[in-house]
Specification:
alpha/beta; about 525 residues; about 60% helix
Amino acid sequence: MKLLIVDDEQILRMRIKRLIEEAGLSFQHIFTAQNAIEATELFERETPEIVITDIRMPTRSGLDLAAYIHEKSPNTAVIVVTGYPEFEYARTALQYNVFDYLLKPIEPEKLVAAVLAAQHKLETDEKHERLYEVFRAHFTENLETIRRQYIENLLFSSETPADADETRQIYGIALGRYRLVAIQCGTAMETAQLESEYYCTHLAEQRIRERLPGAVTYVFGGLVFFLWEIRRDDPLDDNEALLGFLRELHGDVRSDFLGVLSAGISSASDTLRDMQMLRRQTSVVLEYMRDRNLREMLFYEDIREADAAGWALDTEVELLAAEIGVGSTAQALARFDRIIETSRAGDPSDLYSACLLIASNVCLAMRVYRGEQDMPSLVGPIIRQLTFEVAPESIEALRKWCEDASERINAVQRDTSNLLVNAVKDFIAANYAQAIGLTDAARHVGRNPSYISRLVRETTGENFTQLLTDKRMAEAKRLLKETNLKVQDIAERTGYNNVRYFTRVFKSNANMSPNDYRSFCSTFQ
């Protein structure tokens, strides 16, 4: 790493250089320039990563130099030096992304701290850039696999990602309004049914990709899911185009090896957050055709309204129970109100059925958190209030019961989370001197590492590594302050086998080396 010091006063230039050299800061070269013009020439030739410049200089100011550097090399860290009268003037340096500014007379500690901070930022940025290139290359090389995992998550995950639409471009899913199509693959062959069905699935996906370049597909058992982008303004025209595509696809697999296809087609949507709902729609359509021994291409809108309405109620109640099961009280109550409002608009028996369905599904959600012996006392009172002619007060009681259930679950989850995080902290406190990591802590508390990582971050605002480092650094500072142990020994006692790495981590944490910290503490004892 290179440093450039710019000041029209030679004494100040030499003083800054001497302070940095005496502090032992690691620089390959330290250059000096007496004005902005000379500094510009040096910068173009040597490209230093850090520049320290005075603001007021003849001909061109330090701000002019900062503006030039910002244009040519935005990542260069510029530290400006100014006197009190120019303080407001120096504030304009912020628009040139100046890293820091120092007031005259320069205090050695602040100078060293500013340069250390600049070094740390540049090293961190460089590391992140290298990692980003590695990640980007891996992502590009494995885009197809990663996209399949993403689609699988959208289709089958218990909770649809809230940013599904924002991240679709990353995975190369550039479509607007669409339908989800689920193709059931079979065969007319009497032998090797299983093998032929799987081959039919493979062939169907292959043909889809050939006919629709860039199509988003996903294979699950004997099903091929794909997204059909709606391109025509007239919905009927687009439906006919989709049916025509599916008939041609059916003709291909049938002529190749007697493949037989049927397709369930969802309603249209313009958001990927609806994927699970659309998948359920395709399942309803395929089941509808199986029950009637049909082999055709059928839209969700085309099945009988009663079938769709019944499925919609089941799905909504399942989602309500799921929201209660994770303690999402506000979302659950909003969905409860929608279910009741919809049920009231139909046959009188619909409201009674909806209430019973809600009670039974919420019971299942609560069983995870309450023992079997508690169920009668929790469920019995609310069930007894539900009669065929559901009274308004019964609905209100059911709503309050759902709210209480969600709050109980929320409290249990919160207590469990706190207990787990405290157990992780205790594990760190007892084992920080060992070579431990997230996996060891997760195994200690009997949970998956990914779950513990998210839980620690959500509860403490820090990740596991930060908690571990904080504990190690606190102990290192105590040993430096209270003992005469060598830095090497302190490093080993706090879990670092490499003293150079320990020193780098300590500098990042305390803005000074371990030896400087010990000297600093001894001064005030």
